[in-house]
Amino acid sequence: xxxxxxxxALLADLELTRDLPDDAREELAAKCRFQEVGGKKRVxxxxxxxxxIFLVDGHAVRLSNGVAERxxxxxxxxxxxxxxxxxxxxxxxxxxxxxxxxxxxxxAELARLLSDGVRVxxxxxxxxxxxxxxxxxxxxxxxxxxxxxxxxxxxxxQEMTNDPEAGIADLTEIIQSDGTxxxxxxxxxxSPLFRAAKEIKSIREAVVRLGFRNTRMLAVNLALRQAFLAxxxxxxxxxEAVWTDSVLTSAFSYVISDHxxxxxxxxxxxxxxxxxxxxxxIIQFIELRESEPKMTTIQSLLGKLCSITGVLVINYWGxxxxxxxxxxxxxxxxxxxxxxxxxSIAIVARWAALQSEGAAHPSASExxxxxxxxxxPPEPGEAIAELESSSKTLESLKSMFNL
Length: 403
Hints:
Layout: H1 2-13, H2 22-29, E1 33-37, E2 42-44, E3 52-64, E4 67-73, E5 81-82, E6 93-96, E7 100-105, H3 107-110, E8 113-115, E9 118-119, H4 127-141, H5 152-159, H6 168-176, H7 179-189, H8 203-210, H9 212-225, H10 233-260, H11 265-274, H12 279-289, H13 295-317, H14 321-329, H15 342-357, H16 369-373, H17 391-400
Antiparallel strand pairs: 1-7, 2-6, 3-4, 3-5, 3-6, 3-7, 8-9
Helix pairs in contact: 1-2, 5-9, 6-8, 7-8, 7-9, 8-9, 9-11, 10-11, 10-12, 10-15, 10-17, 11-15, 12-13, 13-14, 14-15
């Protein structure tokens, strides 16, 4: 018992783990251990399978990216030193200069609590997934995980929905502030779906042609699309699939909110678009670390980590707790709030998207969000009856978003 108490005390002192809840820290402590390491030992960080090692007593040298840093610690008199470092490279290692006492934290267990009380429960990870999860946690805890840039244009356009004085001039000004989005909008306006008798050459003409609401929805879509980027053929395929799912969920979210007249349909549209945003840093993370990324690994990690990283992204963007709940729960079919919210809309929208695509989905009777929204759960194989009258709006949105 004394050993566990010592480990709990050390975890409480480490910056990496001091913010864990008491019960989580106790659970982690039971799986940590102190180890003695002889002098002149070389340990490669990549061989630790994502575990974290701290120098408690002794002298060691940490080698990272060809740079050597001499570390020392005195048990009970000084803070433990991190022997793994931030974002360790493939060749990083540490060498003990004297007999040392180190404290080892299992990486997969450490990653069970990633951010702001978000717990990963009953997660089964193979060694590779555990290594990825541990490194993602390490990056998060050190504020070095690269997250998608905040989509300023999309958010400014969304803010206009609450401004009754906003008009065409305001919307035109926002769109023109981003050349990429402005160009994409002009291209879309001149596509067969919206093509006029003459070519549209200005953003103002495009707004007039599309209409205020259509322009706003399309511009938000185009702005957010820029976050879903990848370079490798496999990761590009995975990213495209995540984006397509997000857009389809977004379209259904809009028509659900619009038909039921609950909450704000434009906010619901944005909620659907960011529901799967957690997939972006995961795919980009894998792309940077794997020369030959495998789709099976990507899909497995997306299924297990997407909601966690989604919460990180939405909090980082600062776009509201209501959309944090969307990212956290969009794949939680048992989610059941007391009243309709954007997360329950996104869940039913995702169910509708999967059903329409013939993809695997649970029985609607097992999804409480239907009841929360006041929708009748469809029978197996059937679509949501209440949305039949919204089919034209849905098809218009899908066409607008190139689905």
